[in-house]
Amino acid sequence: MYRFLRVILPLAAIALAAIPGAAQSFDIVKVADGVYAAIGKPGVYSNGVFVVNDDDVLVVDTHLRPSWAHDLIAEIRKITPKPVRYVVDTHWHPDHVQGNQAYVSVFGKSVEYLAQHNTREDIIRKGIPSVQDELTKGVPEAIQLAEKTLSSGQDKDGKPRTPEDRTRLQEQLKSLKSYLEELKQIQITLPTITFDRSLILHKPGRDIHVYYLGKGHTRGDVVVYLPKEKVLMTGDLLTNGIPFARDSYPVEWVSTLEALGALDWTQAIPGHGGVQQGKSQLEKLIAFMKDAMAGVQAAAAKGMTLDQAKAAIDLTKHSASFPNFKNGSVAMVERAWAEVIGKIQD
Ligand SMILES: [Zn+2]
After folding, report:
1. DSSP characters for 284-310?
2. pLDDT above 50 (res 55)
3. Residue 206 C-alpha to ligand 1 middle, in angstroms?
4. Ligand 1 mean position, distance from CA 205 (Å)
5. How far does Cα 115 stand from its chain's mean position?
6. 231 CA to middle of ligand 1, Å?
7. Distance 175 CA to ligand 1 centre (A)
8. Cα(95) to centroid of ligand 1, in Å?
9. Are 231 and 270 spatial neighbours (Cβ–Cβ below 8 Å)?
10. C-alpha 143: how far from its chain's center?
11. Strands 84-88 vs 206-212: parallel, antiparallel or unpaired
12. How far, in Å, from the CA of 148 to the mean position of ligand 1?
């Protein structure tokens, strides 16, 4: 199974169980006139955004499942009858682009999908194969495991499962099975307009800036910036925990985050987690990453091994800043190590 999905799947499987039902996948939060954050409910996990313009709508990110993108379209329709004309893919990860097809299926071929060049290339190179891997191996194996776990009737310590535990597992199994069915229908829709550094949509009454500010969480992350509304949509460059780091470029990520900080905004809509007021979470992430990078660089300069480096680098003073500190910081250090030692291969 593709390594990204090994990480994402347990999250998705746990979370999917809590899905409340069609068209209730998101909490819609109005952040400015015509600008709405769609915060993924626990099962849905990743966010979207929609911006209602004079004659059309722009959407940012499309989630893991096309059905969730359809749920978001239902939410958009509660607010406006205008058609979605633009979809921004902030990066290639499946939980941000696998729902792309929903927009072309509802609004027709005039929908344009905007992304950085590298993102389009990575969707082709990694995103499309990962759908096949999930379909043929990842999800079937997870289903098998869930079935085995359920039928054993015992938890990992050999104790009998509680009724709540069984219900949770059954719901996970159900959601994995429905995800498998949905995967069969996924035809990844590729970005139709790509760019290197920036693209600006000049709409009546509003400019929408899409920026690539350097490598970070992936090698193609873009942010969407509304200068008039002072709103920034960050994709996974900035989330409410330590962002997923396994495909990242942590050293360069720090300067990309600093470039985000230099923009004039008061609210950020992250790829995961709630709307952020002000820049405090960004500052926490930068501080954590700078310490992590300094630790990695010092350890590498001393000729340590990765294991020695992991033992020597103490980042615990940042633990209160992130709910996923334990796993998130390990992933960040490991990936930074690969970047510093020069082993990252695109
Ligand atoms: Zn991501």
Report:
1. HHHHHHHHHHHHHHHHHHTT--HHHHH
2. yes
3. 28
4. 31
5. 15
6. 20
7. 21
8. 7
9. no
10. 23
11. unpaired
12. 30
> CB under 8 Å to 324, separation ≥6 — which residues?
241, 242
Q: How far apart are CA 169 and CA 35, in angstroms?
A: 37
H-run or E-run covering 78: helix 66-79
Write phi, then psi, for 27 (nearest 5 degrees). -95, 120
CA of 108 to the centre of ligand 1 (A): 27
Instruction: Enter the tokens of residue 50.
Output: 């929609």
One-letter amino acid of 268:
A
pLDDT band at 11 (very low <50, low <70, confident <90, very high): very low
Edge-first strand listing for the sheet containing 84-88 = 26-32, 35-40, 48-52, 57-60, 84-88, 112-116, 193-195
CA–CA distances in Å: residue 244 to residues 112, 177, 189, 190, 269: 27, 25, 23, 23, 17
CA of 245 to the centre of ligand 1 (A): 8
Which residue carries 């989330």 as its tokens?
A: 239
* CB 90, CB 60: distance < 8 Å: yes
Distance in angstroms (rounded) separating the CA atoms of residues 55 and 82:
6
Compute the distance from residue 162 Cα to the ligand 1 centre, in Å: 34
Q: How far is the CA of 79 from the centre of ligand 1 (A)?
A: 28
Give 122-185 as a DSSP string. HIIIIIHHHHHHIIIIIHHHHHHHHHHHHHH-B-TTSPBPPHHHHHHHHHHHHHHHHHHHHHHH
Q: How many CA atoms lie within 13 A of 47 on its CB side?
A: 26
Q: Is 237 helix (H, G, I), strand (E, B) or coil?
A: coil
Distance from the alpha carbon of residue 253 to the mean position of ligand 1, in angstroms: 13
State pLDDT tens for residues 141-191. 999 999 998 888 887 788 888 888 889 899 989 999 999 999 999 999 999
Cα-to-centroid distance, 301 and ligand 1 (Å): 30
Count of residues in the chain: 346
Side-chain half-sphere CA neighbours of 143 within 13 A:
15
Residue 320's CB is within 10 A of a number of other CB atoms, namely 9
Rounded to the nearest angstrom, the distance between the alpha carbon of 263 and the centre of ligand 1 is 22
> What's this model's pTM, rounded to 2 decimal places?
0.91
Q: What is the DSSP letter of 342?
A: T
At residue 342, the pLDDT reads: 84
Structure token digits, residue 173: 């199994």
